[in-house]
Structures are given as structure tokens and as C-alpha cells.
Amino acid sequence: MSSLPVIGVFTASTILSLALFTFTEEGPVSTPTAATNVDAGNAKFSSAGFDLTPWTKSQIEERCKDLTEEQIRITQASGTERPFCGTLLDNKKDGMYCCVVCRLPLFESTSKFTSGTGWPSFYRALAEGHIAEIEDKSHGMARTEIRCGRCGAHLGHVFPDGPPPTGRRYCLNSEALEFYEEGDDLPEGARPDAEIGFFAGGCFWGVEHAFSLLPGVLDVVSGYQQGTVDRPTYKEVCAGTTGHTESVKVVFDPDVVDFGTLCKFFMYLHDPTQLNRQGPDRGTQYRSGIYTVGDTQLEAARKILSEVQASDDFAGRQIVTELEAAKTFWPAEDYHQDYIAKTGRSCHVNIPAALNAIGRDSSERSNSGR
User: Fold this and answer.
1) Are 163 and 113 in contact (CB under 8 A)?
2) I want to staple 222 with a disulfide (CB 3.0 to 4.6 A). Which of 137, 229, 332, 358 is the partner?
């Protein structure tokens, strides 16, 4: 993002009226570049569980009443703040950077780096769909503008000269962002609209595919979890030295399916009595586990584990599923995602038994969330 001429003095109302021509009542004209967003009814969720339904013109106008003239100039009229002047340039605190307009989380502090350009820089967005990319040929140059994927607010630009692992540099205006330190109470808009659960039950290919069939499940991602190595590779996890499991992240709408139902489905999907293996696969990476987010999920999982263990289905067999607080989830390589759907291969999971356990017939399989 180069240093652009500063717009002359405008009032907030003037800037807003000039800027809103790029919006319709249905939301921003620009289209986010997301590939993994999913629709659920009239809501559009990202893989991180946030509602990406485009904001309307009236929503944006109402929110802009609470913004400063500089924030409106930048976000609604594609302005740029002077380099080395932004309040968040040197921020070193842990937390989340959100859109100043709709408060959609955009970047985690872990992806922030010092670029030397004079603007806050990040190498990875929080999730696909949270950032919209638009060709920008203004000021006699070709660049890629970035906007908020929900409200269309101008944020800055992205360049292909960032550090590994993405090689991208998202160059942001501080005034386009709100920062929430880790542990802060998040306002509406910055909190996920869907819930996330984590399950490990052997090879993640089949587990991912099975969960994707459930109504209310919005997205499922295969990955690695509960280990000690950051950004593990499949080869490293298979070596059995990282402590990670092959797990799946399940994004779901709690108004359609609750966490307890997902837990029960999972318990009958695999064999929770097998220690450090599932089917032909052996090793600690194939152990059975439910990894919870918060006390409510923990209590729900405990209840289901107790009920399943006491059922006739598991009489004389000890369940060895570990129940722990979720640690960092590292998405697996792209070729592992949607593997069953792409290849048509079978896996160890018992989908009919799992559906029957939650009161659904196998003929009811629905992919409504994905």
C-alpha cells in the first residue's frame, strides 16, 4: 500500500454519502474470494463459524454514526492513512484484529509481522471469506484491494511479497481495524455465530466425510491436534512423535444440531474401545478423543460418554475416548480435505450405526450444510 494523497477536509456525512454508492440494499457489490463458505438458510457462515451475510446499506449507515471522520474516510471512501502513523502499527499484544465497521474478525496477532512499510502487516487472514479481494487500478497502478468480507469496508491492499508460509503481505490501515486483546469480552459481531467441536476417531478422511452428512453441520476440516509441534505435517504426525491426533474441526449451527448429538453420533461412528488404533491403522495419532471448547461442551460430552458406556451396546467393553480441552488445531494439507468425496474411497467409519444412534435412518443422509 503506497502513500496516497490525503483527501481534503470532508464531514463524516459527506464522506459517507459519497462512499455508499458502491453498496446496494443487499450489501457490498464486491464478491469475497472464499471457496469454503457455506450457506445455511439465509445465513452464510465461514469455516471459522462467523455469519458472512452481507451487510445492507442501512446497517452500514447506522454503524458509521459511531465512527470518526477518519475511520469513515478510510473504510467508506477507500482512503489511506499516512505511513508510520497508525495506532496499531507497533501493537505487540496477543489478540484479534477486527473490522472497525462490522467487527468481523480478520486477523490473529500470530500472523502479524514487521514489514517496514509503515502500515500494520499480516501474512494470513483468519479464514477464507473474511477478506474480499478486488482489482484496483487507481492512481496509475495495478494492485489488489482488500475489503471486509461482510460489510465491504475498505481495509488496505495485499501484495505477493510476504513471509512464509503464505508469501502474502496484507497491508492494513489501523483506522480500519479494532483490536481486542486476548481475554477481552468481544462485542456482537466479533463473536462466532456458529459453534465449533473437535473429534478424533482414527483416519480423519472418514470422520470428516461422516460429519459432513449431518443437517446443521456447516463445515468440516481435517487436521492435527493435541500435540506439541507447531504446524505439523502429515509425515511428522504419522511418525508418532508429535503427540498430535488426526482430528476434525466441525463447525455447526446449534439451533439445528447440538453438541451432545454430535458426540453421540461420533461415539457410534468409530470404535471408542480401541486404544491408539482404529481398524487397520495403529499409532497414537489414531486415538479416540473429544476435545471441548468451554465448560458447556465439556459437561455435554461427559454426559454422553457416561450414557454410552452404560448402554447395552458397550456392555463389557471399556470406552477409552480421551476427553480434553481443545488445543490448537492445525489444518491438514489440502489433499486431505474432502478426501472421501473427491476419491470415492471407503473408510473405517460406520455411518449407518451413527445415524441410527441419533434417531436418523441412513436414508435421511443430508448434506444441507456443505
Assistant:
1) yes
2) 332
- Select from 123, 154, 181 the last residue of a domain: 181
Taking only the tens place, the pLDDT of each residue in 10-38 is 333 333 333 333 333 333 333 333 333 44
pLDDT in tens, 247-305: 999 999 898 999 999 999 999 999 999 999 998 899 999 999 999 988 999 999 999 99
What's the pLDDT score for residue 49?
A: 80
Catalytic residue among 203, 238, 263, 347: 203
Burial class (CB in 10 A: 0-12, 13-18, 19+), 315: exposed
Give rounded-to-5 percent helix, strand, coil for the chain: 30, 25, 50
Question: Is residue 370, in this structure, part of any structural domain at all?
Answer: no
pTM > 0.85: yes or no: no
If asked whether residues 219 and 166 sit together in one domain, one would say no
Cell of 301: 460430552
Q: How confident is the model at residue 7 (pLDDT cuts 50, 70, 90)?
A: very low
203 is catalytic: yes
Q: How far is CA 143 from CA 33, 108, 121, 136, 139, in A?
A: 16, 24, 16, 5, 10
256, 260, 264, 266: CA torsion to nearest 10:
80
DSSP codes of every residue in 100-115:
TTT--EEEEGGGEE--
Catalytic status, residue 98: no
- Grid cell, residue 304, equals 454422553
Judge if 170 and 234 occupy the same domain: no
Question: Out of 171, 238, 263, 347, which one is annotated catalytic?
Answer: 171
Name residue, grid cell 507497533: 90
- Report how many domains make up the chain: 2
Measured distance CA(145)–CA(147) in Å, rounded: 7
**% of the chain exceeding 90 in pLDDT:** 71
> By C-alpha distance, which of 106, 82, 108 is closest to 93?
108
